[in-house]
């Protein structure tokens, strides 16, 4: 049977309160709303950046396609200009001039076709460049939101960490000198019972499991030696007896 000075048992409740606060702070650190916000922003940014890669690739391909189309048009224009120069100079026989005339007509039609292709590519390129600009702007907005959320996270977690350090120092000071056997039992139960290893007995209720105890058990606990460490029959936690309120 574990025994410990009554004062140590009562101090254990204060240690438990500080341990509970430390657990709450750890939970706050893990579950602060800004962390979920950052996860959401990271996901949105990843989606936008994936779209940006595809959009940049499309723009690059269209610019290459446009350069080729412009080259094709320029090649036909150059050929037509040379033919026109020959026509203007009257070089060659009538048959040659007739052939040049037919060729210039064909080149004119070809140039028209190529210019239509060029125009269609330019229109597609313009649309893709507009979409790319919108994606870039959207990414910039999300990056700014992420930077703001990161600053909020850093400030919030710094505040939590500062309080946790203070509470840990208070806990260490309060636990110093407590009965070693009592502390060992408490730490073991705390690990087994979700962080709550000791609770007060108020009336017939265990403040750990919040259950009403059997009157016979409560009476036995009340009559036990002050040094005896009692346990809750329902949850197994250390049950600390507090002085009974004075009856008026």
UniProtKB/TrEMBL annotation:
PANTHER family (alphabetical): PHOSPHOLIPASE C-BETA-2-RELATED, SCAVENGER RECEPTOR CLASS A MEMBER 3
Organism: Cellulomonas aerilata
Basic and acidic residues bias: start-end ranges: 74-86
Stored Pfam families: CT398_CC, Zn_ribbon_9
Domain CT398-like coiled coil hairpin per the UniProt entry, residue ranges: 15-193
Name used for this protein in its record: Uncharacterized protein
Residue span(s) of domain C4-type zinc ribbon: 205-239
Cited InterPro entries: CT398_CC_hairpin (IPR056003), Oxidative_Scav/Glycosyltrans (IPR052376), Zf-RING_7 (IPR003743)
Domain of life: Bacteria
Gene3D superfamilies linked: 1.10.287.1490
Region described as Disordered: spans on this chain: 74-94
